[in-house]
Amino acid sequence: MGKLRCCxxxxxxxxxxxxxxxxxxxxxxxxxxxxxxxxxxxPQHRRMVISLSDEALAKIQEERQETVRKFCKANGIHxxxxxxxxxxxxxxxxxxxxxxxxxxxxxxxxxxxRILVVAMGLVNTTDPMKISGSDxxxxxxxxxxxxxxxxxxRYRLDTYFKFMFxxxxxxxxxxxxxxxxxxxxxxxxxxxxxxxxxxxxRKNATKDSLKKGNDVTxxxxxxxxxxAKKSSEQLNEHWRPFYRLCHPCVIQYDIIGKYxxxxxxxxxxxxxxxxxxxxxxxxxxxRTGLSTKERTLTMFQNLSPIDxxxxxxxxxxxxALFGYEYPHFxxxxxxxxxxxxxxxxxxxxxxxxxxxxxxxx
Length: 361
Hints:
Number of domains: 2
Strand order of the largest sheet: 1-2-3-4
Number of helices: 14
Structural class: mainly alpha
Shape: globular
GO molecular function, one term: sulfotransferase activity
Helix content: 40-55%
Distance between the termini: 93 Å
Order of helices and strands: HHEEHHHEHHHHHEHHHH
GO biological process, one term: proteoglycan biosynthetic process
EC number: 2.8.2.-
Enzyme class: transferase
InterPro entries: Carb_sulfotrans_8-10, P-loop_NTPase, Sulfotransferase
Largest sheet: 4 strands, mixed
């Protein structure tokens, strides 16, 4: 009887062991699925509980780039190294390591410029966080791709390692609004944009608001953005769509990183370019309060369906290119298909010019 009981206990232990193994495998597969991140902490601190292998990260990149290729092809735009110089103003070059980084404000751009400053040997430190944000953007010179000759541009686009980072477009918009219009040190933006917004969109504005522009509401900011699109006004880089900063349809990036998986994508880049032995991507202390996602949903609740529709038209290409899902808002039933206006797009004009040159040749 004792032997039978002992045998049953062993069988039970083996079954439990196999069940635990199956659960572990399922959890691992779930973690390795595309863009799966650990939530509940800021993106810059998120690393996979089980670190993704480079093979898994490469697969994620293939899927992201395929999404971009399909959308661009559907809009008749294809990669080329013959790019209009005016499109290259946000691409920064590290000739020492053959890197090109497309700067997208409000997507960890300050930390990426810190990384470039250290990598290029412009400072006597290997700690990016010892470089102030203002020094990273203003003091240390990093050449832009637009400053090179056409031949030098083509060579670098064909041979250098190119990367860019994006984030959920509406969350970036909220981040830009809070940073530029609600904080006391953003007086430049408040004077240049805030005063104009108050003047255009606020009835019975006080003299103080018209003078300082430091109390712009989110609703006023959104109306300014959507009206600027209608008037073809050039949007500031902090809220300009990603595709109009980095032009991923004509420039084929080796890495398309996301703010939602920032730490893993940034570490992957450092490993790929051989800088991981001297550099690590900066991390910051966890923030308290509402997450950016929660704050975004709260702030957008006060917008009208018309505002939501107009914002979709402004940022729909970014949502489609980079695989983000536009949130569902009450009162908004249907939205038009995202597409690039090729009739006014310099990317398409450059490609048509290139085609003519090939015919002549």
